[in-house]
Amino acid sequence: MKVLAINGSPRSGHNTAKLLDAFLEGAASAGENVETRRIDLYSLNYKGCTECFGCKVKGSPMYGRCVYNDDIKELLWEAANADAVAFGSPVYFGDITGQLRSFLERLFYPFTAFKKDGDRVIAPKKVPTAFLYSMNAPEPPVEGGYAQRVSDMTRWAHHVLGYAPEVMVASNIWQMDDHDRYEMDIWDWEQKARIRDEQFPEDLKKAFEIGKTMVSNSINNM
Ligand SMILES: Cc1cc2nc3c(=O)[nH]c(=O)nc-3n(C[C@H](O)[C@H](O)[C@H](O)COP(=O)(O)O)c2cc1C
């Protein structure tokens, strides 16, 4: 089985990456032959969808595939053929990062079909997904859960890849160790340190369980 974690945070090794690594550890713990890999999007050169319509050309061998030739061309196909994928992002202005958004545009658009007598979705297979977020503020109380509100791309993941994504948010996270350097003293850093030590490990456990459950379910459905 192949499980990918797509990291939409510019900070490799920080909160979002840690959540994704915990997800992958959980996935790996669920079976013997589970291959896992984290990809840091900010280390790659690519654009969002350019509306070239190369994925929609009639009779083309690339129909339903992204043709734009850059660092993510192969990765997109790999993700669409994986057995499970987690997408991670810090919450930026209430949403996912632009980098992850651009990646998802490229992943989903080739698989949405507009041919009159054809299927509306032409992804190569159904792929269970998870969206794992980190954010600085305490999670606002929102009916149905704040995590569900962060990105509409979860709806598209459901439509295109066939399963309702698992969604979680790690809130009130520890942003930096050298906080004294910055004009950022509106937060109570002592309280935040306690949350880092008590709540974040629970968030990591939750991400681990999501990975483990997702892969266990896939193995059971084989
Ligand atoms: C441009 C920008 C916008 C942000 N917007 C929000 C926000 O809307 N809500 C929030 O709680 N935190 C916000 N944050 C804080 C980040 O969500 C937080 O630092 C993030 O979880 C760090 O993830 P990382 O450790 O993976 O880099 C923002 C940070 C930046 C740099």
Blueprint of the fold:
Elements: E1 2-7, H1 15-29, E2 35-40, H2 73-80, E3 84-90, H3 98-108, E4 129-134, H4 146-150, H5 153-161, E5 166-170, H6 189-220
Parallel strand pairs: 1-2, 1-3, 3-4, 4-5
Helix pairs in contact: 1-6
Structure summary:
This protein has 222 residues and is an alpha/beta fold. The protein contains six helices and five strands.
Bound molecule kinds, no repeats: flavin mononucleotide
The separation of the N and C termini measures 11 Å
CATH topology label: Rossmann fold
Strand order of the largest sheet: 2-1-3-4-5
The number of distinct structural domains comes to 1
Which blocks of ≥5 consecutive residues have pLDDT under 50?
Answer: none
Describe it for me?
With 222 residues, this protein is of the alpha/beta class. The protein has one domain: 3-Layer(aba) Sandwich (Rossmann fold), CATH 3.40.50.360. It has six helices and five strands, in the order βαβαβαβααβα. Strands 2-1-3-4-5 form a five-stranded parallel beta sheet, sandwiched between helices. Helix 3 (98-108) links the parallel strand 3 (84-90) and strand 4 (129-134). The termini are close together. Residues 9, 11, 14-16, 90-94, 134-137, 173, 175 line the site of flavin mononucleotide.
Main features:
five-stranded parallel sheet; Rossmann fold; globular; binds flavin mononucleotide; 222 residues; alpha/beta
